[in-house]
Amino acid sequence: MQRNFPVLQNKNALPLLEKDLTDKIIDAAIEVHRVLGPGLLESAYQACIEHESRLRSISFERLVDLPLNYKGIKLDARYVIDLIYDRRVIVELKAVDRVIPVHEAQLLTYMKLIGIHLGLLINFNVPVLKDGIYRRVL
User: 3-state DSSP call for residue 129?
Assistant: First the structure.
């Protein structure tokens, strides 16, 4: 999986407002990682990034159920999105040895199903957090 952090903006990039939002989310995640470091469970990082986001007044929804419909049938698949910021950015958190393609596929599928075109995959189990941040756009 190709890393794409830091992200350089070009003339076809997302509006600055969305870049500002992702920068704030990433800054909050970096602060959590700076304080805690790698090695904890995903649930601990989830609670801490939620707290850090509240401290920074970044609006978000947590553990959002993802409805799954297939050809008119609503499936009870119990998919849950970790965080949605300002209804514009999906954030999936991980605390794994390495990010594998299925993690990225999960984020991209969630983005497609819910209709949000910007997502961050953040793996906290790395020595330097910038190496665990993946930004994806549909």
Answer: helix
Q: What is the DSSP string of 6-66?
A: SPPP-TTSPPHHHHHHHHHHHHHHHHHHHHH-S-S-HHHHHHHHHHHHHHTT--EEEEEEE
State yes or no: cis peptide before 6, omega within 30 of 0.
yes
The greatest distance separating any two alpha carbons of the chain, rounded to the nearest whole angstrom, comes to 46
Q: Tell me: pLDDT of 129 over 70.
A: yes
pTM summary value: 0.83
What are the φ and ψ backbone dihedral angles of 108, each rounded to 5 degrees? -65, -40
How far is it, in rounded angstroms, from Cα 94 to Cα 111? 17
